[in-house]
Amino acid sequence: MIEMSNMDRTTRNWLQQPIAALDPQARLAAEQRQQQLTKPAGSLGQLETLAVELAAMQGNACPQLDNISISLFAADHGIAREGVSAFPQAVTAQMIANFAHGGAAISVAAQALGATLEVVNLGTVSPLAALPRVHEQSIAAGTASFLSAPAMTDRQLTAALNAGRDAVQRADNVGAQLFIGGEMGIGNTSTATALACAQLGLPPVALAGPGTGLDAKGVSHKVAVLEQALNHHQAELNSAESILCCLGGFEIAALCGAYLHAAQRGMPVLVDGYICSVAALLACALQPAVRNWLLFAHRSAEPGHQQVLAAMAAEPLLQLSLRLGEGSGAAVAVPLLRMACTLHAGMATFSEAGVANRDDD
Q: Is the whole model's pTM more than 0.70, yes or no?
């Protein structure tokens, strides 16, 4: 366990700390239990797989998901000034207030799930007054436009990664059994696309989509902006950290740090849509074993999401054409995970129910 008191908040040396190992004995016990439940083997399909995966993650043959922590990271993006979003940047700060006051989709979903929800403000163009349940960790009033300059400084990248680590530590301190990260930031679909293009070596035309509602002309403009930006930074895009520094957003870097630290601490993660999946992709680039701790909630309507999921061999739980962000898709998938755990723990075995198994004489 990595204690916060031993972490220097001005560095990111913690990124290289080892990733926790899954529990093979708990996995085996869960697999054996599945074989003894009153059903044909494999008949509950992916629900069986999920229960076994969570058992290995939690070190418990019958995993539980009663305590869920959701951290929503918010920040503005300089690239929004290049006309790549259908909404003005003021919306980021306005939505932070909406999250705090319980009016957003993720706010309603978290309450319905009995989950803990916090918002981490990493820096908006529009100033914000103090709000309930909002951690003020402003790094700057948004990133720089990465069209012709790095999105953030090395120091700012450190602060953003560390903010994600700190959120996971808070979740761990209250005994969270599952971590969900969410994001909010006008322009962050463009940022995520630039990051994915750089990491996967794909052109923007292969990944760019409408985001929050661009028309075909708007998408074409987005592609042109991203092509110019990637060409400008090409020589520097040689590591996950450099890619984040040149093209990233504060909230995406925070998600990356959160996913990595959750894996270090042995906390299961449920990844939301396109932007969160790009953060997960970069976390896996920093330490490939992070992938062992990731479950994927849904397949977004954003066209680039399929490529990012494929790069991580990820099979999402849901396909509902969601593209809201906020962690909302992950919240929608939680009842499915809970049902997998409930069935796994609650069903009778063949011997308990007095039902003949296929292997019985």
A: yes
pLDDT reported for residue 357? 87
The amino acid at residue 9 is R
Identify the three-state secondary structure at position 136.
Answer: strand
320 domain residue, yes or no: yes
pLDDT-derived band at 198, boundaries 50, 70, 90: very high
CA–CA distance, 359 with 210 (Å, rounded to integer): 54
Residue 139: both structure tokens together: 């790094």
Tokens encoding 49: 């797989």
Longest dimension (CA), the chain: 74
Catalytic residue IDs = 326
Specify if 258 maps to a domain. Answer: yes
User: In the structure, what pLDDT confidence band is assigned to residue 217 with cuts at 50, 70 and 90?
Assistant: confident
Q: Comparing C-alpha atoms, which of 78, 22, 75, 82 is closest to residue 53?
A: 22
Tokens 């042995």 sit on residue? 266
Q: Give the Cα separation of 202 and 186 in Å (integer).
A: 23
Question: How many structural domains is the chain composed of?
Answer: 1
- Average pLDDT on 211-227 reads 86
Q: Which domain holds residue 328?
A: 68-337
User: Any idea which of 39-43, 151-155, 214-218 has the lowest mean pLDDT?
Assistant: 214-218
Distance CA 198, CA 233 (A): 10
The DSSP annotation for 150-162 comes to -SS-HHHHHHHHH
Q: What is the DSSP letter of 137?
A: -
In order, the DSSP letters of 63-125 are -----EEEEEEE---GGGGGS--SS-THHHHHHHHHHHTT-SHHHHHHHHHT-EEEEEE---S
DSSP state of 19: P
Q: What is the CATH number of the domain that holds 276?
A: 3.40.50.10210
In this structure, how many other beta carbons lie within 10 angstroms of the beta carbon of residue 115? 21
